[in-house]
Each structure stands twice: as C-alpha cells, then as structure tokens.
Amino acid sequence: MVKESRIKPVSRFNEIMDMLKGYSTSIYTNEDDGYDYLDDGYFCIAVLNPAGEDDLYIDIEDGFTLTYGDWDAHYEPYPRQYQHMCEDIRKFLQGDSYLAVVNCGKDWICSLSIDEPKINKAALKDRIKDFLHSADCDVFIGQMNKAGCEINCNFWDVKKSKTFRLRPGEF
Predict the structure, then answer these.
(1) Which of 2, 38, 118, 154 has the fewest CB neighbours in a 10 Å radius?
(2) pLDDT tens, residue by residue, 139-157
C-alpha cells in the first residue's frame, strides 16, 4: 500500500469554496464570536441552509471537521480523507444522505449519517442498532426498547425530513 502524503488543509480552502458555488456561505475565523476555538490562520465555512434549519459547518484546521446538526465527523489531512469529506458534503447538500438523530425522552442517544436518498424505517432501525452495538452501547438499545424513542431524519431539503416516534417495545 502506498503511503499518502499529508496535505495542508488551509491550502484546500479555495477548492472547497469552488465546490460550494451556488450555496450561501459565511466564513469565520477566531476573531468572530463563537469561533475562538480556531487557531490563527484557520477557518470555519458555514453553508447556510436556505430553510433556516441546521447549517453545515466545515472547520479547516490541522485536519477537517464536518458538522451538521448533532452530527460531526473528523477527516485527517490526507487526500483520500479530504475526498471522503467532499463526497459527504456533496451527498448532504444534494439530498443523497441525511442525518438521523435518536433521542430517548430528553436524552440524546446518537446521531448518524445515512447514505440513502430516501428513508427506509426498518433499515434505519437496523442501522441504529448496529451502530450502538458496535460502539458497545447496547444499554441504550435496552433503554429505547423500554421507554420508546424519537428518530429525527433531517435532510438538507427540509421538505424530505421526517420524525418517527417508536413506542416502548418497537425498537
């Protein structure tokens, strides 16, 4: 296997902005309120949701962080990781992926990125169970079966978004 060379994330700023042409964006640095976590020379690009719902944030630091609602993913500064991030951004913005947020009562359980253009409730439940099991969080599966849960499926185009409420025993 060929070892990948590290990239400088800030050197990809213009490329990312080109990818976002046609979308409304804001750019933040550590001089802006709420962005003091950014070191000098680093940026956060906010892709503004036209419906006023969750915006998509791209932190460009030593690596990349993509944040959408209650979900985030970190990408190391390597070409394949960068391409993976760009593909994730494209899928969210074009409606080929959505964010699934699971709550049990007032407790947040998990958030997952689902690479599907449509919601399949049965497949989604299986995906959430697999995720929680692989994260060694089976206790949450029991909690959700006992108390029920709510699954918010959030698309960039909010008209496609849906919320499911599962009664006790349905999960």
Answers:
(1) 2
(2) 888 888 888 899 999 999 9
